[in-house]
Every structure is written in C-alpha cells, then in structure tokens.
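Why should sequence recovery work at all? Because a backbone constrains its sequence more than one might expect. Tight turns favour small or flexible residues, buried strands favour hydrophobic ones, and helices have their own preferences. The token representation captures these environments compactly. In the example below, the structure is given first.
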C-alpha cells in the first residue's frame, strides 16, 4: 500500500497502478458498469487517419528508446492548435431497453514499451438512447494533449508513428507523419 508508482516494473513484478499502467488481469475494466442493454460503436468513415507535422521539425529520441518523438513545448501553441481535429463515433443501442451510457474514448500506442501507458482516457460523453436508436458523438481532440505522453523526465512528447483511438472494441489508427 505504500508503493504508489504508476508504471509497472517487470524486474520486480510490480504491476503498476491505475488503468493506464496496470499489467495484471483487472476484475472490472475501467469504465465498466451495469446496464440492461448493449451498445455498439463505429468510427465515422471520413475520420482523420494521418496528421502531418512540418518537415522542418526535428524529432528526438528519448534516452533508452528508439522511438522518434516531438517535444510538445518545441512544437508551440500555434502548431498544436493547427493539429486539432474531431473524432466522430456512431453509438447504437442494440438492446430492447432504453438506457443511459457513457461513451469512453481512449488513446493507445502500438506498444506500451518505454514507459508508455497501456491506454489513456481522452474523452467521454454520456448518451441516452431508446431501444434500437443510434446517435453520433463528436470528440474534439488535440494531438499535443490527447495523443502525447510524459517521458521519464516529465517532458510531454508526441511520438511519431501509429496511435489508436479506442472505443469499446473498435479501434481507429491515426499516424503522426513528418
């Protein structure tokens, strides 16, 4: 109980804390709740698949890593502001009863190595749907905030390469390209 490190430590068998870093089998997934109906999700077909950074920006390789990353502070607020986009998720109540449901949008990386979280919550909205009804939920996202991570020294970086938006069992890949 006195060890509150967030990240897992495979060398000692420490499992990590919070849904972001816990490597064991959870009793309940983060966001799991009781419902009398089932929901399905789909990302909109016209969703963003690539984010292009200015080719004059120089990525760096954090210590003990082979991952090319961009320092968020070096990108600046103008660049970060220009990278903003929206992800639209279709939600359908598949059951025979009406229900209120939290739609949880997570981001994850292709791997959780080098201190990356397994996943992180980037947005949520509650919807109420009658049986058989559907709706669209729009999540405004900023790659500098929602797709970045903190490295060992606390610096926030945006990794080059694949990132995934996840809702339920559905995933949508977004590539950071320079």
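From this structural description, the recovered sequence reads:
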């Amino acid at each position: 109980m006195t060890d509150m490190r967030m990240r897992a430590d495979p060398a000692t068998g420490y499992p990590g804390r919070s849904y972001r870093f816990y490597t064991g089998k959870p009793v309940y997934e983060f966001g799991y709740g009781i419902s009398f109906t089932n929901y399905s999700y789909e990302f909109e077909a016209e969703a963003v698949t690539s984010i292009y950074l200015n080719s004059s920006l120089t990525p760096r390789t954090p210590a003990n890593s082979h991952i090319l990353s961009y320092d968020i502070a070096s990108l600046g607020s103008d660049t970060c502001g220009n990278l903003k986009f929206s992800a639209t998720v279709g939600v359908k109540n598949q059951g025979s009863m009406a229900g209120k449901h939290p739609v949880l949008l997570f981001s994850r990386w292709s791997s959780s190595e080098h201190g990356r979280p397994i996943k992180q919550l980037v947005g949520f909205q509650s919807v109420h749907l009658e049986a058989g009804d559907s709706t669209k939920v729009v999540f405004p996202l900023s790659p500098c905030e929602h797709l970045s991570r903190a490295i060992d020294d606390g610096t926030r970086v945006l990794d080059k390469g694949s990132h995934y938006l996840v809702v339920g069992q559905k995933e949508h890949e977004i590539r950071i390209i320079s």
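A few observations help interpret the result. The radius of gyration is 18 Å.
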